[in-house]
Design the sequence.
């Protein structure tokens, strides 16, 4: 079947019940999404599908025909990080880092629909994603920072002078 990931079409030769996570990591070599529990309980495998955060370990290929899948690799690179990636680096939100790609993807999906979330909204949205290192406060700060960075980026073309 055809699968669109990070703007590119791929022809995937796999059983339609194969979880998206396996295809991303094994067929497409996109390793940002992590295998944590494999049961939809930790959030390490979170990606964005048509603007919504999705657990790729429990999402079969068959459900993705005609949809747009975005992984962390599709947001930015080390040289040109997206605001969410920059914010997590600047707040040093990662400890072991295993949960971080999933956290960033869920936070990105939140910021796309709600550019200025409150503490409470961020906590509630990120609740399905577990961090056993306990970096929650840094993650919270990183999401607020990403919101500010995105806001500034939107202002840049027409209103450069007013960006702080
Ligand atoms: S690996 Fe998908 S939720 Fe844990
Ligand atoms: S930074 Fe280690 S699990 Fe979150």
Sequence:
């Amino acid at each position: 079947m055809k699968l669109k990931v990070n703007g590119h079409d791929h022809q995937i030769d796999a059983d339609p019940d194969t979880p998206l996570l396996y295809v991303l990591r094994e067929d497409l070599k996109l390793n940002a999404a992590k295998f944590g529990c494999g049961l939809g309980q930790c959030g390490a495998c979170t990606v964005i599908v048509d603007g919504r955060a999705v657990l790729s370990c429990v999402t079969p290929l068959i459900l993705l025909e005609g949809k747009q899948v975005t992984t962390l690799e599709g947001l930015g690179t080390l040289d040109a990080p997206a605001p969410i990636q920059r914010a997590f680096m600047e707040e040093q939100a990662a400890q072991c880092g295993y949960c971080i790609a999933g956290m960033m993807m869920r936070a990105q999906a939140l910021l796309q629909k709600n550019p200025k979330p409150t503490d409470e909204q961020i906590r509630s949205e990120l609740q399905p994603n577990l961090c056993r290192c306990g970096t929650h406060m840094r993650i919270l700060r990183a999401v607020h920072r990403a919101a500010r960075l995105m806001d500034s980026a939107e202002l840049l073309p027409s209103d450069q002078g007013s960006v702080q």
The first helix runs from residue 20 to 27. The domain at 83-160 is CATH 1.10.150.120 (DNA polymerase; domain 1).
